[in-house]
Each structure stands twice: as structure tokens, then as C-alpha cells.
Amino acid sequence: MEEQVKLYDTTLRDGTQGEGISLSVEDKLKIAKKLDQLGIHYIEGGWPGSNPKDMNFFERAKELQLEQAVITAFGSTRRPNIETERDPNLQRILDSGVKAAAIFGKTWDFHVTEALQTTLEENIAMIYDSVRYLKENGLEVIFDAEHFFDGYKHHRDYALEAIKAAEKAGADCLALCDTNGGTLPSEIAEIVKHVTEEVSITVGIHCHNDCELAVANSLEAVKAGARHIQGTFNGYGERSGNANLVSIIPNLQLKMNVPVVSDEQLQQLTNASKYIHELANQTPPNNQPFTGKSAFAHKGGMHVSAVLKHPETYEHIQPEKIGNERRVLVSELSGQSNLLFKAKELGISLDKNDPVVKELIQKVKEMEHRGYQYEAAEASFELLLREGIGESYKYFTLDHFNILTQKDGDFTTEVLVKLNVQGDSVVTAAEGNGPVNALDHALRKAIGEYYPLVNEMYLSDYKVRVLDGGDGTASTVRVLIESTNGKTTWSTIGVSTNVIEASWYALEDSIRYYFMKEEHRLEKNNVVAFIPEAGVKNH
Amino acid sequence: MEEQVKLYDTTLRDGTQGEGISLSVEDKLKIAKKLDQLGIHYIEGGWPGSNPKDMNFFERAKELQLEQAVITAFGSTRRPNIETERDPNLQRILDSGVKAAAIFGKTWDFHVTEALQTTLEENIAMIYDSVRYLKENGLEVIFDAEHFFDGYKHHRDYALEAIKAAEKAGADCLALCDTNGGTLPSEIAEIVKHVTEEVSITVGIHCHNDCELAVANSLEAVKAGARHIQGTFNGYGERSGNANLVSIIPNLQLKMNVPVVSDEQLQQLTNASKYIHELANQTPPNNQPFTGKSAFAHKGGMHVSAVLKHPETYEHIQPEKIGNERRVLVSELSGQSNLLFKAKELGISLDKNDPVVKELIQKVKEMEHRGYQYEAAEASFELLLREGIGESYKYFTLDHFNILTQKDGDFTTEVLVKLNVQGDSVVTAAEGNGPVNALDHALRKAIGEYYPLVNEMYLSDYKVRVLDGGDGTASTVRVLIESTNGKTTWSTIGVSTNVIEASWYALEDSIRYYFMKEEHRLEKNNVVAFIPEAGVKNH
């Protein structure tokens, strides 16, 4: 029977080498739990010999009730010319209490003499002794052959001698590392194939994405006989990152018929990818393959009607299989089928013969002509749609505002706003780091006492784009605002020749959208929506 | 002699299908110019038959003085059952005045009968007629074989029959499209190889990144005989994007010995990648392969000295070859060569041992830490450099301003500005369509009578980007302003937590830069620059 391909995740170790990625012990424990649920076989938790903080993780990881994943520690072979028993790095691996360890060693002769500054013979001894020591202490041992592909290309015999020393010492797996990330898929295939002929234990692969080839290289290695794949979630890692397990897993399972997790686990992939982005405080890229928000997004009217009829001919896999979903974007090319699909998605029942559909399409086109672009502002689009069919969400209306920005030494901005809220006239003042920030502050102050819900949400991104160059600061501007309550995010849009006006529309929509979604939580006497417009207490 | 591999860029067409990517005609013209300088062979400008706005681009692109790139139009084969002469889509391609066109047609039988709802025979006729018609009208024709790989796998004979119809009709190139992005590298290699045996014209490749394999697939296609590669800059495109030319180009040139651009052009790759991110208002991903800020970043630790001694053993390519740079934590050397290169380019003679070089590097690092990024703001960078070596360009200084934005019915903005110009205190007021526009008006009014030159220039674009999400409207913002005198354009930058302050810095730099460049045209009694700072009439 063919040996099963095993997944080895190093998000918690190599992933945190990525610029801007930093995980607390709590985060790491949560991620380990999630990876285990997803069916990952090995979870590399840290490098106890280099980072003493990692000990805490290993200590607490023992309390995790993992179903199958093996927690592993990372480390290096012993230092030159000392006994393994006296090597603090190997000692700490044993102290961490793990059942498996990955230790890296040099396989490129140049690195032995230049970086390690030792002899080629001593390096072979270091590999042999270190692997043997850990094996004698009962650990499963993965030998990470650092710079293996470069070493192989420069001095093949020495690279092979190095990994064979690990095999002879009892290593369970030889993970060949493309440490600099510069190897092409065809070279990976050829070299992995040769290695599998030379050794009789499991061969593994560890790729980096410097050439945007890490996923392809990992798949080629599996085709050539590798049965152990190292990578990180979302491709985090030093420089351009490590091989992205989020893409490798579905490629293996759905494209290459190499099962690595169960179907149910695969359906958790999108959720896990996003969860880890969130814990790592990274904005999930919309265009992330497989799990991104745009990965199964369709644009264009004519195309959309066909997608709805035969999705399999426009999608390389069914998004449900990895827990993602199809989205239809409303864009300039939008037609009736886009609109109907969108409405259905939002739970709004619309008959295609209803005259309101034609009116809505007309309205969308008109707004797009003015510079609105709803594909990145789905919350504004939902409001437009719902108001188009007669629902009303006027929780407050603006009477007027004055914003004063001054440069007199410092730059300061102050604002005075007058709103109508539930029949009351409310006047407030606030300051901020610019006109929009000040306006946002004043608005919250004014409505917060009527709708405390507003304090749960905040703006998480603000983008301004000038639509038609040529008029400089007098051009039409499009403002996109992203808001969040810490759990979900939503985007709204405003367009005007006046950037403050555009910002106001986007701000207003953002708050109205949140109130609409949380309608049931507005206090009873505050509910003014879902009733005919005439009944709204405005004046 | 082996046929040269040609690069076909579709950033301006397929790239803008990416969610959140939107380019004005001005942006498109600038990108076309940049791509031409970089040595791209074909630039697909748009789809005139589907998007009438694109006509404007083709009209204006005729005025671009391109060195080698061929501007192409995109379109589809004629509709079923009409004559090519009456097909509005083909007609618009001819109207656009391009010398080359890419038209797509169906090669997957299922799509013919289901999406097009016509017969298999009629589809073949549509392909033949459309290619022939464009050829008869003197165009170079690329046939984009839509869904080719899926079509080939489902019904090989029909897929081949379809592309052969295009060949027979005189097509110059058959671009095989992995439209759904679901094909594996090994399949791409096998199918491309077979096609090159079946046809005698150039075979091309068009990949999508749904499996994170688009770059590998494109390279495999070249290995299998493809000689025309379609992709986008930074991998923009629908869903998970198109094949990323930014990664494909150096892989071909530096790894596979397939020269596609000159060495000098390759050195512009990082700059071009960033420039296009800026115009598309996208945050450049730090971990972007080859051109990202982290792509050659080495974290501190034991291997830093080894990296400096033998960078080739820790880096898969020399970053200078693609215009990127090594970043090392401890390195004071980082940035020096760039700075000296830039200075030389601007005609400023700087000796690398001059202590001012160290000061300048320190200053640039400090500004970058605050959020400045000079890639897309070379005018501000030149001012920084020149002022750093003691030149002075203080034509006017700001005393204070008040900006009042009101919403009371309409949105209005009025501003009062007080400046010091050539020893005089000048107070003016103006209004505008927003705070920055009003400030711009007032500034011009105030200095126009001292420096009539200001009336020759105007702002042509204005962009705002929030730098660190999470604080919404209170975050640091970066403002980029582009100005023009109708002949040349220049870009300036300002950064602050206050958008008005950031805009002010960019505005001020924009005017100062123009005056500096046109120094010789300032009236004699107005010349206050190029003299020691102490002599400037400020108070």
C-alpha cells in the first residue's frame, strides 16, 4: 500500500519569521487546536533552543486535547566539537517533552566551511550524533536538510552523504529544504526522484516562495515521491513566505487524488485560513487562492447567467468543498441576473418580472455612472436594494455641520454637527485628526445616547480615490469605508466632488447598515425602521 | 534560431477585472508608458466592444511615444449567425485603430452549446470568420482559446479543431487559456507540447492563479514550447488573479535563460511593480516575490555576517538585478547605493565618503518610518535630496490657514490663508469643492501675483491611502499628488495623521518642485532660491 502523505505545519515557527507576523502563546495554542481539527499531522511549535519563550508553549500544549496532531520541536544539530549530551540546543528539545523533533543540518559544503566554520567530516558527525541522540531518547526525528537543493547542485555527493548520515542514525524522515526558495519545479522533481532512489526512509519537502513557485514545487515533489510536506498556513514566512498549505491541501486532495484530510475537514479550510489571518492580525487578501473572498467571485452579466446554470464550467472546483462560497459582483457590466442573484443571496425575494427590478437596475447604472462602485461596498448595495423595494432605515438625519480646520502652529480640526434623531434636534461638537475623523467623532457623540449600538462598531479602513484625473483636487472622489464590530466587517461607499460629502455618505451608510443588521437589538422605543417612511420621526 | 518569447500584458484589461482594481484613462496611459519602458511586447488596452470608455484610451494611446510595445484591443469572435461586417464588437476593434487584436472564442464544446447556445459548426465558423476578417483588415491577430485546457480534457478533437480554424484563418498566435485556473503544471506541459506538434504558428499561454500555480504553469508552458505569455502586473485579475508577470519575467530571464527584456529593463522591475500598485491604489504586499519589501530581507542573527560576506549563498538571485535591495537589520550600507544612483541620475554629484550621504540615508529612513514612500513621489525625493545637500527652495512659507466646510443644504468649503511671500504677508480667501481643493485655490491666488508660473501648472491626480488600518479615520494617511504643466508630470507626497496637513505638504512640494525646475524663468527680482537659506526673505 502506498504510504500516506503527511502534512507538517510550521506556521508557529517558520511562519512567525514573516515580517509583521507575531503570535502570543495564547494565539499559538488556538492555532494548534485549529490545525489539529483540520487534520494536520505535525505541528511545529517553536525552537526551544533559540527562543526560551517557546518552552511555555510546549508546556501548555500538553494540556491541549489534540485528536491526532503530533506537536514537534525545532532545533539544529549539535555544535561543532562538543558532545551531544552537552549541547544546550538538543537538551532543550528533550526538556520540551515533545514526542517528535525536526532538526536541521547543513548539506551544502560551502555553508559548512563558511557559515559553520568547521570541517566537512565534523558536519557529518554532527548530523549523525544529533539524530542518534534524539532517537535514543525515544523521539521521532525529522532531519531538515538545509539548502539541500543548492547543495545538491553544487556538490551532489556531499549533499547525499549528509542525508544518508541522518538515515543511518535512524531518522524517520528526510525533509529536503529549498531554503533560499530559488529552485524551479522541474529541478525539484528531478532531485526528489533521485533522492527517493538513494534512501529508503520517507522523503519530505520544505519550500519557500521566493519565485512564486512554492506550491508548485511542493506538488512536484509529491509527484516525484515525497510523502511529507512542510508549509505554513496562508504562506506566512520569511521574505516571500513558505509554501502555503492552504493551497497545497486542496490541490492534493481535489486535483491530484492524494487524500490528506477528510472531506469534512477540508470544508473547514476557508474558516481556518481566515481564523489564522485574524489571530496573526493580517488582512486576509481578497485574492487568496481557494479561500479568499474573491476566489469564487464572478463579474459580468452574460457570464453570470451561465454560471448560475452550470457553475462547474466556470469554477475549477465547487467552493463548498473547501468551505468557501460563490459570489456575484455587482459591477458596471451588471445585468438582471446579477441583481436577482444578489437579492436572493441577501434573502430578498424579487420576481424578475416585477417592475421594481428594472427600476433597481436603472438606479444602479445611474449611481455607477456617478462613480459609485458597489463591488467593494456590499453594505451600501444592500441598503440601496432594500430601500429600492420600500424598506426604510432612516435612524437619523443630518441637519447641518460646520468643520473648521486650522493651521496655526499645529493642525487642528473641530466640528459642529446638528442631527435629527428620533424627533429630537441634537447638536454636538468634537475634534479629530482631520475633517472626516472629527465628523465621525461628532456623529457618534450625537447618536450614541439614542443608539448605544454605535459604540460597538468602529472604522477599520478608509480609502479615497479620485475618479477622473485631469481636474486635480476638484475631481470627483470616491470614498470607501470599512467598518467592523470586531467580528464581521462591512464596506460602504460615498461619491461626490466634495471629499467631505463623499465621506459623510459612506459614514452614514456604515452606521445605518450596522443598525439594520442589529435591528433586533435596538431598544424597543428606538425602533424606527421597517415602518413606512412617513412614520419615521424626522423633522 | 529559436523564436523569442514575447510578453503580453493585460493589466489594463483582465487586471481591472480584479475586485477593487479600477484605473482611470490617465492611469492606464501611464501604466502603458511604464510597461513599454520595461520592454513588454504587447499591451492589451481594453475591450472596446464591451466597454465604450475604453475607446478613449485607444484614442489617447496613439499619442504615446512607445518604443516597442504594440497596443492591442481585446474582443470576442462574432456573434452567431451574423456577418462579421455587421458585428459591432469586431467593428469597434477596427474603429479603435489598433495594429493588433486578441479575440477570444470558445474551444470547449459544452460552452458552445450551453453558454453561446449555438452549434459546434457555427462556432468554428465564428472563429474562422472573425480571425480572417481582422487579418483582411491588416491586423496582427492573437486568438485567445477560452477554456482550452478544460475543453481539451473533455473533448480533445473539438478543442483542436477550434484552434486550427483560427490558424487556417491566418491567426498569428494561438493563446491557450486556462480560464478557470484549475489546471496543474504537468497537465499544462503535456497539452501545450501536444498543441505545438499539431499547429505551426506561435503558441501562447494565459493562466489564472486559482490554484496558486499560475506562474509555474506559465513557465511549464514555455518549457513545452509556448513563445507568448499573457499575464498582468502584480498578478491583478478576476478571482485569484492572472499569472503574475512580475514573477514570470525574472524566472525566465535569470533562472531559465530565456531572455525577454534587457538587463537594464529588468533592473526597473521593482520600481514598475510598486508604481503600478500605487496607481491602482493597492497596498504593495511586503512579501511579494522578487519585488516586495521583504523579498530580500534578512533577519538578524548569526547568519547576517555570512550574508554580507557571501550573499549568493543566502539569496536565490542578486536583488540588484531586478532593482530590489537586500535589507539587513544592522546594515548602514543598505540604501547607500540606491541613494548614490538616484543622485547621479538627477545630476547631483555626491561622494560616497561625504558625511552628508550618511545623514541623507538617515533622513530617508526616518521619513520612511513615518510613512513616506518615495517610489511614486520622485519630485519630493529630489527636493529632499537637494535640500539635504544645502540647496534651498523656500519660495513662500505658510503662516496659517482656516478652512470651513459646511453642510447646510449644499456642501461648501471656504478657506482663509496667510502666507509669507518674498517678505510680504499675503492673506487670501477662496472656496472649493473640498478642503484640499479650496486650499489649492487660495494658495495659487496668494502666490500667483509674485510667481505667475504657478498658473501654468495644475493638479492632475490626488490619492489618499490610510497606512495602518485598525484606527479608521484616525490613522496615518499618505497623500500623493500628481501635477502637470500639460507637458510633463511630477509627483509629490505628504504624510500625517491629519489628511489636510498631509495634503498641504504634497501641495507645497508640488509647487516648489515646479519653480525649482523652471528657476530660470522666475522673474529676476523674484529669484530667491539657490541662495543660502539665511538670505531668504522670510519673517
From TrEMBL, chains A, B:
**Which reaction is catalysed here?**
pyruvate + acetyl-CoA + H2O = (3R)-citramalate + CoA + H(+)
The superkingdom listed in its UniProt entry is: Bacteria
**Keyword Amino-acid biosynthesis in annotation:** yes
Check the record and name the SUPFAM superfamilies matching this protein: 2-isopropylmalate synthase LeuA, allosteric (dimerisation) domain, Aldolase
Pathway(s) it belongs to: Amino-acid biosynthesis; L-isoleucine biosynthesis; 2-oxobutanoate from pyruvate: step 1/3
Q: Which PROSITE patterns match?
A: AIPM_HOMOCIT_SYNTH_1 (PS00815), PYR_CT (PS50991)
Q: Could you say which protein family the record assigns here?
A: Belongs to the alpha-IPM synthase/homocitrate synthase family.
State the NCBIfam families in the record.
citramal_synth
Name listed for the protein in its UniProt record: Citramalate synthase
Species this protein is from:
Aliibacillus thermotolerans
Gene name for this UniProt entry: cimA
